[in-house]
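Instructor's aside before we start: the two examples that follow are unrelated to each other. I chose them only because their records fit on one page, so don't look for a connection. First example below.
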Amino acid sequence: MRWMGRLERRTVVVHMASGASVRGVLVGVYRDSLVMRHSTYLGPQSTEIDGDVVIPRPNVAWVQTLPEGAEP
């Protein structure tokens, strides 16, 4: 997933194997995890998440990029 480093500082939605999804600004791409800021849990009731979100790579099903200027 080396290409994922090019998505840093972009707004993305990370869809996880559990079915949960998180939208935010991707600020870190590491071998074992992704780090996001200004994140929102997307579910029946969207919830803003304070601080950084660290998502272990094994939990990531797929990553969706959003258009430039999309609200984080």
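Example two begins here.
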Amino acid sequence: MTGYSSQEAIGWSSSLLHGQDTDADIVRTSEAQLQNGRLQEYVLRHYRKDGSSYRCAITTAPLVELDGTSEYLISMHRTMPERSSRAANNDPQKTSVPLTIPMPLIEYPDGDLPTHLPSHPELDALMVLWREVRSSGDFTLDVMTRWATHLSIAVVLPDGRFQFRLFGSELSNIYGRDLTGCFLDELAPLDLWAVVIEHYRDVVRTGEPLFALISVSNGRWYNEVSRLFLPLSGNDEVNFVMGADYKRDLR
């Protein structure tokens, strides 16, 4: 997105991406609000290494330690289209995103469908890591490399909606497309995603992990995705929900 390698960027402040058209007032306001432990969402003009600019939607939240202090923060960046004369919210072409999950289904002609398995080894390992990180407060995205392609992060918006801000490449294969930037309540089929949204709400309400299955069958065809939801908290509230999805190999 930026043209900088990690080696070039680590050690610099976020001002590395700022330029002449970056709104300094937004930056100052965001930094002040973060010091008060508040989640921030805003759009800035950022600049790549080659000098070209782009609009960037930024969601930032403090990672609160067990004693209530906050030394680190987590920040999600995604590119935004340049503004046009047509407001996105009034776009008559906006429709629900068609989705079939999970794919492909596996045929069981005799109707003897497999029973749900209780978990997945990778999800078990991720749960162990999450509990260790929560107790130590030592959270970095580097420790998530093993699961990175299977991870999604949804931001909890002030109005109670959820929006994907990160969607791993393997998830795009499972779900048929990259859902980065999509609101969960705009996805189809609506009845299936309504159940998924309730899972997200449970995590926000309880502040605890949730293991869930998404299964599709019609008596002859079957497949399932095992999913672990993990809360990421700031200021005593769940600001993000991290999900890890693994499609079953049932053959």
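The CA atoms of residues 89 and 151 lie 28 Å apart.
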